[in-house]
């Protein structure tokens, strides 16, 4: 069964007749700090037309000693936001107790953070707590590590608990060391998620992905260009004084500027020219497959030769020569060296796998 068949009856994100349409914008502070900060931020966001307010009340922090959230009290402030502004409200849950408290407080959307979605025990505990609450709306962030199956598994646990208003949030993936992004986008992962689960709404979180204010606009545009359904962006009435993630929070006014400059392209529009270009792509992919299959056949024959002559599979010098020359050649042809290196490494890995199989399997050398 494909994943698509498993999660086939997902429902749109609708609340009492209000259907969240693309682009769905969720915004609010990283953390609820004080009642005043929550309400002031919420008023600013309501004034620019934001329909869904976010705020963490339980904060997963990398190290102990930081601000770990205001806890249950924050749920009352979120309720106040809902009453005063009419916005829907969302918060992060990580345990059974969080789920029960958030649902009891009338929180409209619960999201599951990246550290929690990486943990199947925690995901199952949350799914069990959600059983019987079929009208809950749940968004699952990608796990901190770039593992699509783990992300789908987390979504599936929630789906199996009976939840049909389900969405995913792409917030990027952890890497070691300093990089431009706080969390690397690795766009191919949400793209593959979209291919596997076309009905699942995907939102992008440019705040946690970029980790800095100036990256929010370009990442948001990129996510919209890729057809994501919406954005979850951290905002604060006084970002420089925020108790968590202050470098990535923006004021509601700055959010308004970013949203007004977002270009929404019509992702469904398909022109005749595009159809012709797509046919060309199909042809190119076909040619690529033919050549790849030929290369693998030759690689197979090399494997048989190496077995007959008792030679080792990986010949490091030869591999390095091949890699370097192909990268040079690619660059001369206007293809990025980094891209070529990734492709050659994948091809080499598959060739080695094939040859190791031949060396360990006596019936193969007669082929
Ligand atoms: C958050 O949204 O405040 C948060 C903690 O995000 P993440 O789980 O993506 O780190
Ligand atoms: Mn945050």
**Main sheet makeup:** 8 strands, parallel, barrel
Point out poorly predicted stretches: 363-367
Q: What CATH architecture label of the largest domain applies?
A: Alpha-Beta Barrel
DSSP helical segment count: 14
Query: Could you please say which CATH topology of the largest domain applies here?
Result: TIM Barrel
CATH class designation of the largest domain: Alpha Beta
Describe this structure in words.
The protein is α/β, with parallel strands linked by helices and 367 residues long. The chain contains 14 helices and ten strands. Helices cover 50% and strands 11% of the residues. The protein is elongated and about 80 Å long. The strands form two sheets. It has an eight-stranded parallel barrel, surrounded by five helices. Helix 2 packs parallel to helix 3 and helix 12 crosses helix 14. The two termini are 34 Å apart. It folds into two domains: 259 residues, TIM Barrel, CATH 3.20.20.70; 89 residues, Chorismate mutase (Chorismate Mutase Domain, subunit A, Up-down Bundle), CATH 1.20.59.10. Manganese (II) ion binds next to loops.
Question: What descriptors fit this protein?
Answer:
367 residues, alpha/beta, TIM Barrel, Chorismate Mutase Domain, subunit A, 2 domains, eight-stranded parallel beta barrel, two-stranded antiparallel ribbon, 14 helices, 10 strands, disordered C terminus, binds phosphoenolpyruvate, binds manganese (II) ion
